[in-house]
Amino acid sequence: MDKRTLLFLAMSFLLLGFYPVVLQHFYPEYYKTSKTPDKKTAPAVLAPKTPPLSVQTFSAGDDLAFQNNCVKLLFNKKGGSIHEVSFPKFVDYDTHEPLVFLSLKEIGGNVTLVHLTEAHAEASHSLTPDYAVRIAGSEIRASATQDGVQIQKSVRFKADEYSGDLRIRFENTTDSPIEFNYQLFAGASILPRHSIDGQYIEGNFFSRPGEKDLLQHIHESKLGKNTASSGRVDWVAIKDRHFAIALKPQPGPSFTGLVQGLGNNRFSVSLVSERITLAPRALVEHDFIIYLGPNELKTLAPAGLEAIVNFGKLDAIGRLLVGVLEMLHKLFKNYGVAIIVLTVLINILLFPLTQVSYLSMRRMQIIQPQMNKLKEQHKKNPEKLNKEMMELYKKHKVNPFGGCLPMILQTPVFIALYVALSKSAILINEKLLWIQDLSSPDRVTLPFSLPFLGNEIHVLPLVMCAAMFFQQKLTQVKIEGRDSAMESQQKMMAWMMPVMFGFIFYSMPSALVIYWLTNTLIMGAYQLYLKRATLT
Of 309, 329, 348, which marks where a domain is finished? Predict the structure, then answer.
């Protein structure tokens, strides 16, 4: 791959890695990557006067466990809510136990927690009552009475699904009318499992004003004790790179999305109901879909939550590439092999553009001495220099910008695949050779410790660096008449680019490194062929 492409991609990957961090530093409240809403839709705004949730601790002895084939939930009688979510189909690399997605030791913000409030703008979070919780087959039921209102919650899951049906019933047990709002929590902050996970943890508000889809992203960084709220929403979610918890109201009452800062870079995501007036002895029921599972289209689609899978500005390309990757997995039965084949296919499809870029680069290298000579001859006459340069380009059939357009056209595909692989839950626990989890960096344990690295190293990025070094060596062409400064610059680039990419990719998921290593080997093979070919 030529140096312009490498530099461009290096800067692109650096921006992908550090732009969210910079954005959260200066604009911690939220940012949006979605279609612009119409003027009637209220945007997310800060509501700093909203008091934080009251936090209560509880004992493990109060837990009740529910499990189907997809998800395991721990319920607690304090709040009758879910305080731990794990997935039996996904294994934690370190503990070899089912992967724990959410584990809260405090009651504030637990999944399906209900808080009665007078108005969400000035929420008065009273102490959470004890619930009577029982599990009967595929259904979990919880009930309690708070401020004269009997609250009954029931959640029903099917055996092989990550989504369930949630029903909440409010009954006025007094002889007087009662007015209230309530908050229904989708969960609180998720702890990152890997070093790159922090930038992906966020709350989502989704609404559909008119015919437009609006997806809002609220990040945890420096939210503090503030809150971010939205207008009417269709669903809310809290998610990380691979998993999500979402609450989607069924048609009927309207809800507002709310994110509340809990301090220490933690936040909760909830739905806030419209004003409810209950006559004496009257009741009302609200139905929801609750989703606790991976960010995969095939599991999200039945619940109408596909928008949780979002690859940013290149979303359409990313979804297409993930679809092709899944088809290749069905054929080869291994996602590592599927990534290699997908990378080969992408390079075949983009080969005409790649060839134009490389041929333009090599022709520019060949005429470089003549260009330098013209610059020296006409350094005091820019007009004459430009004319002579154009004649030189015409004579050798060289377009000075010939390598730029192919690079610009290829880059969105490479970046879309990069983002798609970094966010795909389908890669968790998938193996290839010594790699045990394609969603994590590969690990090789050493019998000794190394400074800054410990006793584990990531071998795959080192292999990638070596491949890039040899690829860079192939791009070096000795041309008579080229000055020594340019030769020195080329040699420096041959070392600098592999080191830079090695640093960027060292803690990246193995799937990304496999993709870039495969791409490097393909480009190296093509450069070797091109180096031996005779250019006319």
Answer: 309
